[in-house]
TrEMBL record:
SUPFAM superfamilies assigned: GroES-like, NAD(P)-binding Rossmann-fold domains
Organism of this sequence: Amycolatopsis echigonensis
Name of protein: D-arabinose 1-dehydrogenase-like Zn-dependent alcohol dehydrogenase
Regions annotated as coiled coil: none
Transmembrane segments: none
Keyword Transmembrane: no
Gene Ontology terms, MF aspect: oxidoreductase activity; zinc ion binding
Family indicated by similarity: Belongs to the zinc-containing alcohol dehydrogenase family.
């Protein structure tokens, strides 16, 4: 089979591998869609042999197939896999983390927080940028028939992350929600929150993303290079601020603005990774009785719930993909994706 290897220094190779055979508790997926995530660029851009360190992780990152947004069809199952749960031909997403399986965090569905360390498919183990992917059967999450494989790839990372944050915030039709950052996670958050009935205010520094936000369901879209988003949000909400705010950018000014734009008794979630933020604790947190949470991806149960929600509400999750590529075009695909001038991309099979 073919697989994409990140070599570092903006070099990748499509290499040949033996077709995988499942162990007793494993399955092999025939890949149908593998999303390209902004975090993949850490591995693509990092100096050779230093990709994991650049992404804040430890371990040997040499020779692993990239792609942590896999979706496909079950091609083979191991001898110990219960055929009542998984059958050849089933449409499946992959929860791209695995842990020890025994600690409290693993047992409650959070292997990415495993007390003994974890595996990340596409980073510390082979991922989905390949013809086939072998994973433990417990990592599989069913893909509803109503959804495309590309939608499944989106749910397997960015869209699932957005859904996880919105559920942490308990967003509903009574809310006004500000979403800072209109990359793929922010776009998905706008889509999902609008489907939940919230009035959504989208904020970004890129004019093209601001313009596209209304296509995803935003009631209002703000370009924070031309307006003060906090003041604009106060004006839109009659001086009160939003009941909920979500930062998907990781940028310090956006994080601070998310907190400042929240109303009294409001809630704010941080999803965007990296960097720091300085907050004025008394006026912005204590005296507003504000709740601030960090939201880290999603559990397999949350991923399945996200997929069902999208299917029930007719959310076009695969609209976040502006570019679609074939595996043989991976070099060209990542050269284009590295420029970050377009939207999200997906490799389809």
């Amino acid at each position: 089979m073919r697989g994409v290897i990140f070599k570092g220094d903006r070099v990748l190779e499509i290499q040949e591998f033996a077709d995988p055979e499942p162990g007793p508790d494993e399955v092999v997926l025939e890949m149908k869609a593998s999303g390209m995530c902004g975090s993949d660029l850490h591995f693509y851009r990092a100096p050779a042999g230093q990709a994991l360190a650049a992404f804040g992780m430890t371990g040997d990152d040499a020779g692993f197939i990239g792609g942590h947004e896999p979706c496909g069809v079950v091609a083979a199952i191991g001898t110990a896999v219960d055929p009542r749960a998984v059958r050849v031909g089933d449409r499946m997403m992959v929860h791209h983390y695995d842990g020890c399986g025994f600690c409290d965090l693993c047992r409650t569905g959070w292997p990415q927080m495993c007390e003994r360390g974890n595996v990340i498919y596409g980073a510390t183990a082979h991922g989905g940028h390949a013809d086939y992917l072998k994973v433990p059967a417990r990592t599989l999450v069913p893909l509803p028939d109503e959804l495309s494989f590309a939608a499944g790839a989106a749910i397997s990372c960015g869209t699932g992350t957005a859904y996880g944050a919105l559920t942490r915030l308990q967003v509903n039709a009574r809310d006004t929600l500000a979403v800072f950052g209109q990359g793929p996670v922010g776009q998905a958050a706008v889509q999902l929150a609008a489907a939940m009935g919230a009035e959504v205010i989208a904020v970004d520094i890129a004019a093209e993303r601001v313009a596209r936000a209304k296509e995803f369901g935003a009631a209002h879209a703000l370009d924070s290079t031309s307006v003060d988003p906090v003041e604009a949000i106060r004006e839109l909400t009659g001086g009160k601020g939003v009941t909920k705010a979500l930062d998907c950018s990781g940028a310090p000014p956006a994080r601070a603005a998310a907190v400042k734009s929240a109303a009294k008794w409001g809630s704010v979630a941080f999803v965007g990774e990296g960097s720091t933020v300085t907050l004025d604790v008394s006026p912005d947190l204590i005296r507003k009785q504000l709740t601030v949470v960090g939201s880290y991806t999603f559990s397999p149960v949350g991923q399945a719930d996200c997929a069902r929600f999208i299917a029930r509400h007719g959310v076009e999750a695969d609209r976040v993909f502006t570019d679609r590529w074939r595996l043989d075009d991976a070099v060209e695909a990542y050269t284009a994706f590295d420029k970050q001038t377009g939207g999200k991309a997906v490799i389809e099979f």
